[in-house]
Design a protein that fits this description.
Two copies of one chain form a homodimer. Chain A is built from 16 helices and 30 strands. The termini of chain A are far apart. The radius of gyration of chain A is 27 Å and the shape is globular. Helix content of chain A is about 25%, strand content about 25%. Chain A is an alpha/beta fold. At the A-B interface, helix 1, helix 7, strand 21, strand 22 and helix 9 of A face helix 1, helix 7, strand 21, strand 22 and helix 9 of B. Bound molecules: flavin-adenine dinucleotide (2 copies) and coenzyme A (2 copies). One coenzyme A sits at the interface of chains A and B.
């Protein structure tokens, strides 16, 4: 007998599950419920449509209910909200615009309701000038508000991906944009040293940043709105975009008996089955295992949602398929800059008390002698066994490639030594004979093998200035153009001549511009019996931290 | 006591070995011999300097002898050719411009003499209008010939990487360019179906291609030169660039007793040590192990040369380090197109009688709803156990990234199932929620699991036309715009309605534009009891083969 499968939610996870299930099972009865009018839309494209980078609205609609019917024989029911799952009798209750309230039975059920924007009960939050962005109706509302009204000043609350994308897109439409972030820095997947580079890019393009500050209240002022911040500062704008995070859209499951996490996420096993047999859940609404730390986490991203949908479908179709965890590989365009990351950052590792080491490589997107090479910074985080815990990259071009490669090594449980050995595409327009990823592998290997000891700019404050010698090994010109206070200048190329003038009893802290010459200096000094550490990432990484 | 280490050859492999050795061993005496004037130059940039994409000659010189002395305390001896290795007394004989002939002793020796252009004894080859390209003097000669003379027409002999890069660069300088290739197609690392796309790009940019034809003789005609081909065709040009491959520059080792391969390459073990203990060899001059097939091969590329130099140095410094083989990951820019490959192609696997399967994915560089998405084709070659044997990619952008990721999976001994699970960076400007690499994994998995059977356009000729049904499952419009002879058109979205009109006893061969709808059709038909195969890569791959 053919299976009857219901799917709740018709976008990334739900539509992927339904399509894959049909391919695996031609006879199943598949019904997909979607609360809204649209299915299979490009969530990730919404900010760019508002910013008019994507010109045609129709491009956002990847599939239509009719298309899903024609191609996959899927009964798509839009304007149909599932308000309840009745697991005992294996039915869902549906509130349909067209058909009213009814029950539909299932053999299997896939839940992919996604996540909705957080709207905290701040005074004045009800203003019709405050918007959140999740779907096509939200998009239409924001866009027509901006198109029609004389909107010139926007405040974006929240410096996560959606907030930053909205800030960029509104700015590109010529608005005055202020971005307010409660944390000390924007973009939670990144550590401060990388996030500040993005912050600089935003400011360079005229986005005003207010960090370490949250919203206390909103108040309409005729055609404008006041935003009062916790610091006491008050802003006035024509519109507010609220993008302070998402919460799983699982209200309809609240007292259903299905196991939920403490923030309302659905709990699943590695086959993505919930605590109810035969009921699967995927996408933004579930808790997943962090691929690196094996902890439960919530990572609302489209790639994982799509993959999970496919895996749930496979299990329903009888194909053994498991989800092995999420790395959180993510990427963001910010004007001319790309920021990407995979795995864990320092902040999350510290929270979990997981020991780690960090190195930086500041290199170029491709061979510097070929036109168009642009700076590219990689931060690599790894443990004593050589396993890679995370990586972050910032630059104008080629960042996605390097983070993808490192994400691949993480996924295959590779080590830093593998990064060193990777044989990647090289011709001058694309890379260097030693790709930045290879260099990151070399640098990390050298640290692990104890060939060089490193310190970070952060740690500099802890040193006893009296009893250490801070040596800037860059050229005299570089030194004159700015250096760390208290440093003496001995260019690496003259270091061997100066060895006898150095106090062997004093530990040396060396640094250069990016960490490479400092490493060379550390090798020379170590082998001549000095106690020396090199500042990883050099003056460039230090500078990024705004000292 | 400190080691005395000699290095023969001062560019990619040699200079890398010398620099790394100094970092690992501050006390070693290191002497680097280079026959020419320049060391550490950017071989790979030479065509682009001739083409004036790289404007400053100085940019080609990555390091100088003085720079190597200052930074790495390396005694660089240019204009110093090593003419003999006297392994019994552990010396080399040096022919120095400055110092005449002398012997220099060693404890360890690194050989990185590279490879030189093949110049076969064709009649007329001595013409001063015929050039090969390997180093700075060659570059200067070619560039000044083109700059000064009224050179308007060039013939490039050889369609390998250097030949194609030269054709592109000369064309970009406005020359009339004809490229002559003896094989049926250019670019040996690629199979025909991918190479033809590059051939089209060359022709679209005005490069004339003559395939399946070689040179019989050259003859100077005053200021021009005649090139007579094997076919009898005769060309006339102002200059000829000869780029038909390279041969190891190991003449000085010929009767030395060191073990050489049958084409003169130096044979080494996995520590890159030659048959002479303490003598290491790296780079273009050695035979390496193919990482995938474990066969001996010769792969003259800069990435491997650099890495090998570092490994040889490590071994001399007493660090255990081995070279695990070369994949041949390589990449080429051809006007607006990128072609990249890693691992083996069909041709090489066939030669070795290694069974394999092939799939294609024709996808886009990033989400198609975001501006600038361009076509991207991947070809994946794998075996029955799911291991990846090779991959090739062609497109305008994003090709390097996808081949790098697949090269990484190959290096870590991953399988096609791993491609499916990779969590790669996704935001609309960079990729799709299902990255083309994920899709390649899905498609390959479906083939391996027997969920769909595929055939290639090549194989179509073998089918019994009477007893098979060739079904084009694209739309009517697509069908009308061109289809394979003998096909009937049943759009996939109407296939379910037509099932009863199809002869169940006839095997069906389905195809669509890129292979995806054909796969959907195959799933529908298989589950309804039909015997069906889908043409992988679809009409697009078929078309690429110029039917
Ligand atoms: C503006 C924006 C930009 C983004 N950019 C990126 C990006 O660049 N990269 C990236 O990886 N991710 C991005 N994301 C996140 C990505 O879109 C999500 O991770 C992904 O869509 C999650 O898929 P899902 O199926 O879980 O939820 P969704 O795709 O949100 O689908 C859930 C659907 O379920 C419906 N639904 C909810 N409850 C019910 C119910 N009870 N009954 C019926 N229907 C219901 C909802 O209406 C919704 O349409 C972005 C998200 C947004 C909003
Ligand atoms: C035009 C061109 C473009 C290229 N483009 C690319 C590319 O895009 N990507 C890529 O991966 N690879 C490319 N390559 C190949 C790459 O340059 C080589 O693989 C790499 O340089 C090999 O390093 P090697 O040390 O073995 O030899 P080389 O770099 O050639 O160095 C060998 C040196 O040894 C010297 N020498 C030889 N014999 C003696 C002797 N007896 N005594 C003293 N000195 C001696 C030679 O003069 C030479 O300078 C290109 C090569 C060329 C010529
Ligand atoms: C449109 C949508 C329903 C399509 O889902 P889908 O059919 O699973 O995904 P795709 O269109 O990428 O097709 C993938 C399938 O085609 C197959 N395929 C792709 N290219 C192929 C080729 N060249 N040859 C053979 N098969 C191919 C894949 O193997 C896969 O099939 P499988 O899962 O059975 O292995 C779903 O992706 C969707 O709703 N997207 C919009 C919402 C969204 O994802 N938002 C977040 C990002 S903005
Ligand atoms: C110039 C040349 C001598 C440099 O060789 P090299 O010093 O080995 O290579 P690089 O300059 O890339 O430096 C790599 C070293 O710096 C270290 N390094 C790089 N960035 C670093 C950073 N941010 N922090 C610390 N160390 C860093 C690496 O770990 C590596 O050292 P290791 O090998 O001891 O681990 C050599 O590459 C050369 O001759 N190149 C031109 C010829 C050529 O390659 N041609 C073919 C391509 S066109």
């Amino acid at each position: 007998m053919s299976k009857k499968v219901l799917v709740v939610g018709g976008v990334a996870g739900g539509a992927s599950a339904a399509a894959r299930l049909r391919r695996m099972d031609e006879t199943a009865e598949i019904i997909m419920f979607e609360r809204d009018e649209h299915i299979s839309f490009a969530n990730c494209g919404l900010p760019y449509y508002i910013g008019e980078n994507i010109k045609e609205r129709s491009k956002l609609l990847v599939q239509t209910p009719q298309g899903m019917q024609n191609r996959f024989k899927i009964d798509v029911r839009t304007h149909s909200e599932v308000t309840q799952v009745n697991s005992a009798r294996k039915t869902v209750t549906v509130k349909s615009k067209e058909k009213g309230i009814y029950e539909e039975s299932y053999d299997y059920l896939v839940l992919s309701p996604g996540a909705k924007a957080i709207k905290p009960p701040i005074p004045g939050i009800g203003s019709n000038k405050i918007f959140t962005l999740r779907n096509i109706p939200d998009t239409d509302t924001i866009k027509s508000f901006i198109d029609k009204q004389e909107v010139q000043r926007a405040v974006v609350i929240g410096g996560g991906f959606i907030g930053v994308e909205m800030a960029e897109n509104l700015r590109e439409r010529g608005l005055e944009v202020t971005l307010v972030e409660a944390a000390p820095h924007i973009l939670p997947p990144f550590d401060t040293d990388m996030a500040v580079v993005v912050e600089q890019e935003l400011e360079n393009h005229g986005v005003k940043l207010l960090l370490n500050d949250g919203v206390k209240s909103f108040a309409d002022q005729g055609d404008t709105i006041d935003i009062v911040l916790n610091s006491g500062m008050s802003l006035n704008a024509d519109t507010v975009i609220l993008a302070i995070g998402v919460t799983p859209d699982t209200g309809f499951l609240k007292d259903s008996g299905v196991k939920l996490g403490n923030k309302g996420h659905i709990l699943v096993n590695e086959r993505l089955e919930t605590s109810w047999p035969g009921v699967y859940a995927v996408g933004d609404a579930i808790e997943v295992i962090d691929f690196v730390t094996k902890q439960n986490v919530t990572i609302p991203l489209a790639g994982p949602a799509n993959k999970q949908g496919r895996i749930a479908a496979d299990n329903i179709a009888g194909l053994a398929s498991t989800y092995k965890g999420t790395q959180g590989t993510s990427i963001l365009k910010v004007f001319g800059l790309t920021a990407a990351s995979t795995g864990n950052n320092e902040r999350s590792l510290k929270k979990l008390n997981i020991p780690y080491k960090v190195i930086y490589v500041h290199s170029a997107s491709h061979a510097t002698y070929y036109p168009g090479a642009l700076p590219l910074s990689l931060k690599l985080i790894f443990n004593d066994a050589g396993y890679i815990l995370g990586a972050q990259g910032v630059g104008s071009t080629g960042v996605d490639k390097r983070i993808d490669v490192i994400a691949t090594v993480i996924r295959l449980n590779g080590k830093v030594a593998d990064l060193a050995e990777l044989e990647l595409c090289y011709a001058p327009p694309y890379s260097s004979a030693k790709d930045p990823v290879n260099l990151a592998g070399y640098v990390a290997e050298n640290v692990l093998a104890g060939r060089t000891e490193t310190f970070t700019y952060d740690e500099l404050a802890d040193y006893d200035k009296e009893n250490t010698l801070l040596v800037d090994v860059r050229t005299e010109l570089e030194f004159q153009n700015g250096h760390i206070e208290g440093a003496v200048n001995i260019p690496v190329d003259k270091l061997r001549e100066e060895l006898n003038n150095l106090d062997r009893d004093k530990p040396i802290l060396a640094y250069c511009q990016v960490g490479q010459r400092g490493y060379y200096a550390s090798r020379i000094l170590t082998q001549h019996g000095f106690n020396v550490k090199n500042m990883t990432g050099g003056y460039k990484s230090a500078n990024a931290q705004n000292f």
